[in-house]
Write a structure and sequence with these properties.
The structure holds 2 protein chains of 2 kinds. By secondary structure, chain A is mainly alpha-helical. Chain A has one domain (21-114): Fumarate Reductase Iron-sulfur Protein, Chain B, domain 2, CATH 1.10.1060.10. Chain A has 7 helices and no strands. Chain A has helices spanning 4-9, 27-35, 47-51, 62-71, 74-80, 89-93, 100-112. In chain A, helix 2 crosses helix 7 and helix 4 (62-71) packs antiparallel against helix 5. Chain B is mainly alpha-helical. Chain B has 4 domains: 7-244, no CATH class; 260-355, Orthogonal Bundle (Fumarate Reductase Iron-sulfur Protein, Chain B, domain 2), CATH 1.10.1060; 389-494, 3-Layer(aba) Sandwich (Rossmann fold), CATH 3.40.50; 499-612, Rossmann fold, CATH 3.40.50. In chain B, helix 8 runs antiparallel to helix 9 and helix 27 (523-532) runs parallel beside helix 30. Classes of the chains: A mainly alpha, B mainly alpha. Chain A binds chain B through residues 38, 51, 53, 56-58, 82-83, 85-89, 91-93, 97, 99, 101-102, 105, 108, 112-114, and chain B through 369-371, 373, 375-376, 378-380, 395-396, 398-399, 424-428, 430, 432-433, 436, 438, 441, 445, 550, 552, 555-560, 587, 590.
Chain lengths: 119, 634
């Protein structure tokens, strides 16, 4: 395993991490914002991720999902969002009163449809 | 005289509705599942038949439930339903004994006065005429209330809100309202012309006869009477008045032991059509009187289903508190119907419309989820030790650690062999997913939890959260006794496992929806509270209890409206200024705590506070011993 020591140490060339806004699809986030406008109040504090039942087991983070959705990087969200258990703790901790449960519900629904055109 | 053209509209309407009722019943019966068919057959030829007849009389005619909760509204419904029934019954008897021959066609009874205008001059005939007038006056008094309710003031019948109607409903309502006044005027004019009639028709008739050619004037009103009857009968299947024939079917089915279940079928369809849109669920709904949302109540949900309208937003915008199930005078299982509506996707046809498909089979489009993959495979396999009592705190309890700590204290004090199932935060119980209509995902979580419970070999499962309690009891197929912590604490007290002090505190108790109406646990929490404190009653006890507004049942309600519901409910419950507002649900506690000035505590916390710990009991003796020992050394 060539270079494994340096890889572990974190000195590899990192992949290009460019967010191509033109290629990204905002249909999902627009759909969610239309149906659940309280998401606009989010200040990305991460309280939801801190209390998350699922987050206890995996790296699932609602804050991350929200950021990805906002950027329109739906492919990253598509599988991740299924991990949510809709238990509702995030609503209770949210300092801004975002109806987080409905955000996940809407996103799940959006990804369950065959194509985004149905939105 | 046996025939006149004006009876044609009435007869057309009557035979149409009779044929329709028979056809609809046959279709509904055919679509029943096999066990339900057997149940119905057994019920029809068994004891349930008598029960059903009694219930039809008490509820469909007398409207006992409405009379009990709201007398004026009950009187209005009773006078129209029971009055009309009496009018038909005694009209038929009248036609039978006073007519030329027995067993007359229906129109002879309905238009008896037209065909026998000389009838009712003296003696028994006049007395009978008095009875018929009395019944008509009874109906008209109810009609007066109904008109008052619709146009001027709902307060006249003790209601705050009444249902909004669609246009066909309005036409049907008008024709229904026209039936009785037109009968009154037609009978009065005929009576006036022949000098017959009793206190109502007779006196009104003689008054008309003074300035009108009564005999000629009567004829158009007989037409109007027949036309309004005919119109009403024809519109019946397309409007809310379908509830009149359907409710009879519903009562027979319910008494035969058929329940809504979790899939749309004949029974839920019959229930949907049995709703009369009386609007009692609207006044009962906290989203209506606290949050000012008047479009999502059960009456509107059923109406949207009947009319094949979009139901997604209505179905999901509900706290699922079950207050409307309690008040519904028809006894429709409203929450299960809402759950069915949540489960079926938007593209699904869950029910057929009476108009679009009343002679064709229901379309069974099975909703296909596109993701059959496992969503929660990331959950690590847990290995709980063998134990007798398993304690599941639940997500919400982890958010309110004081309840968890209190339960740990009580469980330790009980001396039972117990272990903490989700000490470091476990998996959700699945009920929130189920409430969102995502049963497949919920089933996955149920399997994960079931495995842990099964592996532990526990005989008792104690949970602190009513949301978990409900799903553990109803949807987990486990051979364990599921207890809410209130039941567990009560058992411990009864069996003498723990001892409690008396706290000298005034508390009121808020029954959580999922525990009370949802699971029928009312007495145990109160017994525990009575044991440790001075429990004061509020005006919202047991079935009447309020929802805290924090419910996970509602997906769409925003925080502002939730707060409004919560603060209204908290204000009602703390009206007597108690020292503490007790509840039995971590979510209720959390919701109330943010809006109420009074201390909000779970009953487990109060019990833990009152707990006489064995260590503290032994302490004095141990201290004594220690002193003695040290004294000896010295």
């Amino acid at each position: 395993m060539a270079g494994s020591a340096s890889e572990k140490f974190g000195f590899t060339v990192s992949k290009a991490r460019v967010i191509d806004y033109d290629a990204n699809d905002k249909a999902v986030i627009n759909h969610i914002l239309e149906k659940e406008p309280s998401l606009r109040l989010c200040i990305e504090c991460g309280g939801c991720s801190a209390t998350c039942t699922t987050g206890n087991f995996t790296s699932f983070s609602l804050r991350e999902i929200h950021i990805l959705l906002k950027r329109g990087e739906n492919n990253h969200v598509r599988e991740k969002i299924k991990k949510c258990m809709l238990c509702g703790k995030c609503i209770l901790v949210c300092p801004r009163g975002v109806n987080t449960r409905n955000v996940v519900f809407l996103a799940k629904q959006a990804f369950q449809k065959h194509s985004i055109n149905e939105l | 005289m046996n025939f006149d053209p004006f009876i044609i509209p009435f007869n057309l309407g009557l035979y149409f509705i009779l044929l329709f009722a028979v056809a609809r019943s046959v279709i509904w019966f055919r679509e029943l599942s096999r066990p339900d068919k057997l149940r119905l057959q057994r019920g029809f030829f068994g004891r349930a038949f008598g029960q059903s007849l009694k219930e039809i009389f008490m509820e469909s005619l007398i409207h006992r439930k409405i009379l009990k909760s709201n007398f004026r509204l009950g009187y209005m419904h009773m006078s129209l339903a029971f009055g009309w029934f009496l009018l038909i019954l005694f009209g038929t008897i009248e036609a039978d004994i006073f007519g030329e021959k027995h067993l007359n066609p229906p129109h002879k009874a309905i238009f008896f006065k037209f065909f026998n205008p000389d009838h009712g001059k003296a003696g028994f005939e006049a007395a009978y005429g008095f009875l018929m007038d009395l019944i008509l006056a009874f109906i008209l008094s109810g009609l007066f209330l109904a008109v008052l309710k619709r146009f001027t003031s709902k307060a006249a019948v003790g209601m705050k809100k009444t249902t909004k109607l669609k246009i066909l409903d309005k036409v049907a309502l008008t024709s229904l309202w026209l039936i009785f006044p037109s009968r009154l005027i037609a009978e009065s004019l005929t009576s006036g012309a022949y000098g017959t009639g009793s206190f109502l028709t007779g006196s009104l008739g003689s008054l008309f006869a003074t300035f009108l050619p009564a005999r000629e004037a009567a004829y158009p009103f007989w037409w109007l009477y027949s036309l309004s009857l005919g119109t009403f009968f024809v519109l019946l299947p397309l409007t809310r008045y379908m509830h009149i024939p359907t409710e009879l079917f519903l009562i027979f089915m319910r008494n035969s032991g058929i329940r809504t279940g979790d899939r749309a079928g004949t029974f839920s369809e019959v229930e949907v059509h049995s709703c009369s849109s009386c609007g009692m669920c609207i006044d009962q709904c906290q989203m209506s009187f606290s949050a000012g949302i008047h479009t999502i109540q059960s009456a509107y949900l059923l109406k949207a289903i009947r009319n094949n309208n979009e139901t997604h937003d209505i179905a999901h915008n509900c706290l699922m508190c079950g207050r409307c199930d309690q008040i519904c005078p028809v006894g429709i299982e409203l929450s299960p119907i809402r759950m069915i509506q949540r489960r079926t996707g938007e593209n699904d046809t869950a029910y057929t419309n009476v108009w679009k498909g009343y002679l064709r089979q229901r379309q069974n489009n099975v909703h296909q989820k596109t993701v059959p993959s496992n969503s929660y495979s990331f959950v690590p396999a847990a290995d709980p030790g063998r134990t007798d009592v398993l304690y599941f705190a639940g997500c919400m309890t982890h958010l309110t650690p004081s309840i968890k700590d209190a339960m740990v204290k009580i469980l330790d004090a009980s001396g039972l062999k117990w272990s903490f199932m989700d000490k470091d935060g476990g998996v959700c119980c699945g009920r929130p997913l189920m409430l969102a209509g995502q049963d497949r995902e919920a089933r996955e979580l149920i399997n994960i939890n079931s495995e842990i419970i099964w592996k532990s070999g526990a005989k008792t499962l104690v949970t602190s959260c009513p949301i978990c309690y409900k799903i553990f009891r109803e949807s987990y197929y486990l051979d364990v006794e599921v207890l809410h912590h209130s039941q567990f604490i009560k058992n411990c007290i009864d069996e003498g496992l723990v001892k409690m002090n008396y706290l000298h505190r005034r508390v009121t108790y808020h029954t959580p929806c999922e525990l009370g109406r949802g699971s029928g646990v009312y007495n145990e929490p109160k017994a525990v509270l009575k044991h440790v404190a001075n429990l004061e009653l509020t005006s919202f006890e047991d079935e009447k209890s309020l929802c805290c507004g924090g419910s996970l049942g509602n997906m769409l309600l925003d925080q502002r409206d939730r707060r409004r519901i919560a603060s209204d409910a908290a204000a009602e419950l703390t009206r007597t200024n108690p020292d503490c507002l007790a509840t039995a649900c971590p979510l209720c506690k959390k919701t109330f705590a943010s809006v109420s000035g009074t201390r909000v505590a779970d009953l487990a916390e109060l019990a833990a506070e009152a707990l006489v710990t064995t260590s503290s009991k032994k302490k004095p003796s141990r201290i004594k011993g220690a002193i003695r020992e040290s004294a000896r050394i010295i």
